[in-house]
Design goal:
Blueprint (H helix, E strand, L loop, with lengths): L11 E7 L16 E2 L2 E2 H10 L6 E6 L4 H7 L9 E2 L4 H11 L7 E6 L7 H10 L5 E7 L4 E5 L2 E6 L5 E3 L3 E4 H10 L8 H7 L4 E5 L10 H14 L2 E14 L3 E4 L2 E4 L3 E2 L7 H13 L5 H4 L13 H13 L3 E10 L9 H12 L6 E6 L5 H4 L3 E12 L3
Parallel strand pairs: 1-4, 1-6, 4-5, 7-12, 17-18
Antiparallel strand pairs: 2-3, 6-11, 7-10, 7-11, 8-9, 13-16, 13-19, 14-15, 17-19
């Protein structure tokens, strides 16, 4: 946690509002926790703020009902403890601001958890604008013709001159926005600058871009996925290879699926040779060593461990670097057991662990025609290839 005591003079803390249930996007998972290019949408919004040198700390206002999803989405991020939001956005922002009182920041950025493409230059412009006014908002001018209408009938054109579409993060001098929210009427506000203006505070418009959009609909999510895809221009390939011998048992773990067999693979963990090869392939693609460096067999914590934890860790390492696993290909080498009857279950399990479309997961099997240790049934080998995309630069 960056701050356990009052913040340094002129400190800037970002408050990220992510307490909504986000029903407009549909589905059971709230939109802020939906996967976007291998990482939750909220995580991408937080990462953009955490990476900025002028943002001293970040706190999330969340829904405690989503505690597990929040914990998974923010694992490994250096955040202040989250605070519970309220029924309306205005209530959530007020709760977040009140939670910062003891930290005494000079400035605060209030951002939507579902707006993942804020850039550093915009954050700089917003913070700089607070030298001249107590509030600043990113905005883009309205360029489309605006019509007022009832139902399906157009009534009249609304002049668009001087009209702007507001975005977040919105920047404020902390004392001013806290006082404004404390005095705000109970009528719900969708924009924090409106509270400051209602209290008589000046708000500056700061130029933003269309790329800083908020994910609200399914179309927005698709657009966001395209943006992430374009950002990840550093394409890498990694390979992995692993072998485990066979011993007594009643089944072997392959690709996270237990396959009935008259033996079991021997190893410190569950000895899932296919997953181990795939973990090495992903780690190789991002130059992060090998599976033994992350999960040493000398560590008692991993004795008998399920290998899906190793694979999930490798995927998370990619996500923390702003990347995605694009495709994986695993080849299992053995005479027995037969992989074919279990292939689709294996593909589905790997896809689930890595949060991938199953169409991006390949599982194959081959034999050595009775030659070598695999041919004699002494063990099973696996080769894996992983394709990973990272941000360019």
């Amino acid at each position: 946690m960056p701050y356990a005591a009052p913040a340094a003079p002129n400190a800037c803390i970002a408050l990220v509002v992510a307490a909504g249930r986000a029903t407009r996007l549909g589905g059971e998972v709230p939109k802020q926790y939906r996967a976007l290019g291998g990482a939750p949408l909220l995580r991408r919004s937080l990462a953009a703020l955490l990476a900025h040198p002028r943002v001293d700390a970040v706190r999330v206002v969340y829904n405690p009902d989503h505690a597990q999803a929040y914990a998974q989405a923010t694992a490994g991020l250096d955040l202040l403890e989250p605070v519970a939001g309220g029924a309306e956005r205005q209530d959530s922002v007020r709760a977040g601001l009140e939670s910062l009182v003891e930290l005494k920041p000079a400035r605060v950025l209030i951002h939507d958890g579902a707006r993942p493409f804020v850039d550093g230059a915009l954050i700089d412009r917003l913070i700089d604008a607070l030298e001249d006014a107590p509030g600043a908002i990113p905005a883009v001018p309205v360029v489309d013709t605006l019509w007022r209408g009832a139902d399906t009938d157009a009534d009249a054109v609304v002049p668009r001159e001087g009209l702007w579409r507001a975005q977040t993060p919105q920047a404020f001098r902390f004392g001013d926005i806290l006082a404004a929210h404390r005095r705000a009427s109970p009528t719900p506000l969708t924009d924090d600058a409106a509270a400051l203006r209602a209290a008589g505070g000046r708000v500056k418009l700061v130029a933003s871009s269309e790329r800083n959009f908020k994910v609200t609909t399914v179309d927005d999510l698709s657009r966001a996925a395209r943006e992430v895809f374009l950002d990840q221009a550093d394409i890498r390939t990694g390979t992995g290879f692993d072998v485990h011998r066979l011993g007594p048992g009643d089944g072997v773990w392959l690709c996270g699926v237990k396959v009935p067999h008259d033996g079991a693979l021997v190893g410190h963990s569950d000895a899932d040779v296919a997953i181990h090869a795939l973990v090495d392939a992903i780690l190789g693609a991002i130059a992060e060593g090998d599976i033994g460096a992350h999960f040493p067999p000398s560590d008692a914590r991993w004795k008998g461990a399920a290998s899906h934890a190793f694979l999930r860790h490798a995927g998370e390492l990619v996500a923390r670097r702003g990347g995605t696993v694009r495709h994986v290909d695993v080849t299992i080498v053995c005479e027995r057991p037969k992989v074919g009857p279990h292939r689709e279950a294996m593909r589905a399990r790997l896809a689930e662990i890595l949060d991938l479309d199953p169409a991006r997961v390949s599982v194959k099997a081959t034999t050595t025609e009775g030659l070598g240790f695999t041919g004699r049934g002494e063990g099973i080998a696996a080769h894996a290839v992983a394709t990973v995309a990272l941000p360019a630069g």
